[in-house]
Amino acid sequence: xAATKQIRHMVRFNATPRAxxxxxxxxxxxxxxxxxxxxxxxxxxxxxxAWGQHLCGVNVELIKNKRIVQAWRAQNWPAGHYSIAx
Length: 86
What we know:
alpha+beta, globular, five-stranded antiparallel beta sheet
């Protein structure tokens, strides 16, 4: 198995938590801001795909308009490799 690194990166957005939550949890809104197809099941345990089928994952924790935790991976990543986005 290839060696991997842990990377931590924090970004602040100039938007309300509600706007960010809606953009990330609504398939149509997500597709509108990325310009690529997205399919999102907006519940804990729900699966999602973004950028067509290039990214996929599962919602780990959701607190409406406050917090999103997702495990996701790119299509070309080694099997079993996921990133956690909060």
